[in-house]
Amino acid sequence: MTRNIILIGFMGVGKGTIARAYARTHGVFNIDTDDIIESKENKEVKKIFDKMGEAYFRALEQETANWIESSVTNTLISCGGGFYKVNNLKSLGRVVLLDASFEWIHKRLKNAKNAKAKLAKRPLFNKEKEAKKLYNERAKLYREVADVILDVESLSIKEIVEMIAKETIKNEERVKNEI
Ligand code: S3P
To answer: How many separate domains does the chain show?
Structure first.
């Protein structure tokens, strides 16, 4: 992998799960933008939202994007659901959208073993109605910034990982051709 792979998509679509599965099977490292922010601030995302507000969190996402652009290569990066809004997304790597319907995502979160914790740590998924509204607002915007769209509803984790691996090969060929 030469350029990074940037996994974007709505909260709960499985970006972390896919990133970990990919890293395990392909011998690369994966990082997560929420984890970087939590470690920098020494606070959970939810606490950052509660104490400092959403705008402060978005500024941290932009700082994280700037650091990735200047310092990170060869890495699979899973992003928080709103990270797609940073102004240099396309410079960070090849952008892969994990796409699914709101109903599928909601069911996935509700049926998870640790469903309560998964919902509690996501301040913007607190109320189903508001989350759905956010989903509808973003659906088109995600597609606009994506280089590749994977419909995860109809694919197994293994299949998604294989498709990302194919993207990685294309990625490398593209980089070679640019040299
Ligand atoms: C957000 C998604 C969250 C986290 C924050 C805001 C969003 O990440 O960054 O709560 O705006 O969609 P996940 O997509 O990992 O839940």
So the answer is: 1
- pLDDT for residue 171 is more than 70: no
Q: How confident is the model at residue 42 (pLDDT cuts 50, 70, 90)?
A: very high
Cβ contact 171:73 at 8 Å: no
Residue type at 160?
Answer: I
**Domain CATH for 160:** 3.40.50.300
Single pTM value for the model: 0.93
**Maximum Cα–Cα distance for the chain, whole Å?**
49
Contact 98, 160 (CB under 8 A): yes
Q: Give the domain range for residue 109.
A: 5-178
Q: Which of 33, 34, 114, 127 to mutate to test the pocket of ligand 1 (most atoms within 8 A of CB)?
A: 34
How far away, in angstroms, is 128 Cα from ligand 1 center?
Answer: 15
Q: Which residues contact 118 (CB under 8 A, 6 or more apart)?
A: 12, 109, 112
